Amino acid sequence: MTPTGTLDALLVEERVFRPAPATVIEANVKPADLAEAYRLAEADHLAYWEKAALELEWHRKWDAVLDDGKAPFYRWFPGARTNIVHNALDRHVHIWTKNKLALIWEGEAGDCRKFTYFELYREVNRLAGALRALGVSRGDRVCLYMPPIPETVVAMLAAAKIGAVHVFVFAGYSAKFLRERLNDSKARVLVTADGFYRGGRCINLKAVVDEALPGVRGETAETVVVVRRTGDDIDMQEPRDLYYHDLLRQESPEAATEIMEAGDPLFWLHTSGTTGRPKAVVHNHGGYMVGASHTFRTVFDIKPTDIHFCTADPGWITGHTYGVYGPLLTGATVILYEGHPLYPQADRLPTIIERYGATIFYATPTLVRMLMRYGPQYPKKRDLSTLRLLGSVGEPLGPEAWMWFYKHIGRSNCPVLDTWWQTETGMAMISPMPISVLKPGSVGKALPGIAADVVDDKGQAVPPGQGGFLVVKKPWPAMLTTLEGDDAGYARDYWERIPGCYFAGDVARRDEDGYFWIQGRADDVLNIAGHRVGTAEVEAALCAHRLVTEAAVVGLPDKIKGEVAKAFVVAAPEWRAAFADADAFASELRAHVRRELGPIVVIKAVELRDTLPRTRSGKILRRKLRAEELGQALEGGTGEEE
Ligand code: WT7
What we know:
The chain has 642 residues and is of the alpha/beta class. The chain folds into two domains: 21-340 and 420-508, ANL, N-terminal domain (Rossmann fold); 524-630, ANL, C-terminal domain (GMP Synthetase, Chain A, domain 3, 2-Layer Sandwich), CATH 3.30.300. It is 32% helix and 22% strand. The strands form eight sheets. It has an eight-stranded mixed sheet, sandwiched between helices. Helix 12 (317-329) links the parallel strand 16 (307-310) and strand 17. The chain is globular, with a radius of gyration of 24 Å. The structure holds 5'-O-[(S)-butoxy(hydroxy)phosphoryl]adenosine (WT7). Keywords: Acetylation, ATP-binding, Ligase, Nucleotide-binding. Belongs to the ATP-dependent AMP-binding enzyme family. One of its GO terms (cellular component) is cytosol. This is Acetate--CoA ligase. Residues 537-619 form the AMP-binding enzyme C-terminal domain.
């Protein structure tokens, strides 16, 4: 959540920005089209999405657009058959996009590799053949523990092509985390790399894999495919570990695409919730494909000449939807960057924009605030005149960062599309379009076909200007289909909190014009630099330390990261014998959390306490701790007393 100061600023924000005439004239979706889209979606929700589905190729059309007989287990396009890779790759080989650039990749050292659709197609086919030869078939899971390199995109598509389900574990996660995901998914094949470059360092990823694997169950990860990226010395264990390039050498550049049912799973992606364990969100071939493709075409207004720079790692949902699938489904060219955004200095991203002539720049508020801190002289040194659209996602951008982004990256010339969505939604849900009137700090209106609303805890719509829970009142194509292995949890967490509505877990308000203003999470989930971190997850990690008896974690506002975690810990008395002082113990606990969960979960501070405040029923009063920390008086109770 943003600092409270920003919240106040939101309430008085009244600036509006109108689109330039040229933007309106050239937009894929012009004002009359948008009005018609809202009219159609309003009159016939399913007809709207059916129209979107017809933009793609299907091997068999649907028997119905939506089967809601077993709600909330909605089935989009039942009876339809396709494979997302048919639309993302195969089909381009027969049309003019065949020799168009699909992927531009830049390594941290400035090395560059480019793939046309045809080249990407052939590489994907080789890996698809290799995976088949390793015994992977339809429905099997393939785990990806990959840095941002071209082979990562290849691996996602190759798995999907043969009907396998990719389960991506972001390369910043720990060995323990990887082991758990491997055990959950029972993936027999793991695709990884020797390492990658970030922040001027060579990170040895294979060493983390070697640490994770001894604990996995049964046949899990019996084969590890290793991409040679850094060429560093790594341990290759025979016969388990195989080099990607050796494997592909013998493979044919043609491979059959498995024709899937629309509802067959395409990938799982883990995200934090309010329990100690991340949940595996499941997305499918048909509905996800329609949502990703349609929103990328309309919101990002994609044209044949566009070069889309998505800063998100492919391992997050943003990377999946708008770094890989959305761009390829629409025949666009996408830029993937390996390294740290400020390496070797703060003009790195502007330099990439200039070098390849990026037209769309999709970033995160944390990134914008980082650039802001270094100052406008960095982007000013670069020619950013090719840019025509800016995008933001992951956390509240706020009016101040919005204005900076607009002015110093967009040269007061590019609409800022602040897109609200989630791992679970699979696609952008609330967002301005290039032709929209923009309000800095607002994520704009719900997109056509998205029944978003702000309601109270009974599900009643709240009046404009008043805060409430963000919900979606009708299903949408790219929605998660379930939580893997936890149908009950899916129904409970998302559809039963407010009956009949999808509960997003955010608090928001809507103004008189129908514009949404996101205020932050409504639950015990932190948003650290756009990454969801469950307080329960961090608390579980802390409690796994032998000297910790109890722990509570709260989020505190941070100028750059939006939010950071602070831990309150009740320690076993022996800690005094083991450490020189509280600071030394705190450092150990921070390092411990890092080892358990990975470097993205940063604990800013650790405070030792004798006891933690609890409700009569024993629940930790995190809001009390947070309020104490912020020096706020608790008025009207904590809402957690029961
Ligand atoms: C949570 C979802 C979707 C890709 C990145 C995050 C927050 C997302 C915005 C935005 C304010 C936002 C919400 C949401 N969030 N976009 N434009 N403005 N907040 O995906 O990890 O699933 O997190 O991120 O709190 O619930 P995620």
